[in-house]
């Protein structure tokens, strides 16, 4: 499998980037990942990196970005924070990924059975977790009525992905302009921790 170069990155459209991620997830689910010489990729990328995608995903140990999309070293940026929420540091990281380093797509990648979303639905308050969960609260308020049952929690997780995308567009004029110009795509996706399947929204 090729290592990403500036030329290869530049040749991809935002839709090409999405299609590549979808194809990689299909290989992952089929347990037919491409063979890679990771140490060779380490050497090739030591002089520079040209990832084609930036993933904003949860810290959940079951959702390692490169693995679920069957990618190697140097092809994806990973921004990971519990609940795949947005703050200034996340926005700065995504702006760097796209405006400076040339990535073609931002994927806000949520997942099923998310502990952060569950905690937000249960109104957990604990140390710095309280402030983090407050960023999921808009999705909770828009979806949750009464008890937080499993189906409702999954609906909140989906809405939380949408809220993160809305915040990216609203709070980063740089990324909003790039999307408007067709330079990048900003999309949501959900990883199923039981099957390994990523469904793009």
How would you summarize what this structure contains?
This protein is of the alpha/beta class. The chain contains 10 helices and 5 strands.
Characterization of this structure:
There is one protein chain. With 201 residues, this protein is an alpha/beta fold. 48% of the residues lie in helices and 13% in strands. The protein has 10 helices and 5 strands. It has helices spanning 6-11, 14-29, 38-45, 65-68, 88-100, 115-121, 129-134, 137-143, 150-171, 173-180; strands at 53-57, 76-80, 105-111, 185-191, 198-200. A 5-stranded mixed β-sheet has the order 2-1-3-4-5, sandwiched between helices. Helix 8 (137-143) packs across helix 9 (150-171). The longest helix has 22 residues, at 150-171. It starts with 5 loop residues before the first helix and ends with a strand. The model has no long low-confidence stretch (mean pLDDT 94).
Keywords:
201 residues; alpha/beta; 5-stranded mixed β-sheet; 10 helices; 13% strand
Topology at a glance:
Elements: H1 6-11, H2 14-29, H3 38-45, E1 53-57, H4 65-68, E2 76-80, H5 88-100, E3 105-111, H6 115-121, H7 129-134, H8 137-143, H9 150-171, H10 173-180, E4 185-191, E5 198-200
Parallel strand pairs: 1-2, 1-3, 3-4
Antiparallel strand pairs: 4-5
Helix pairs in contact: 8-9
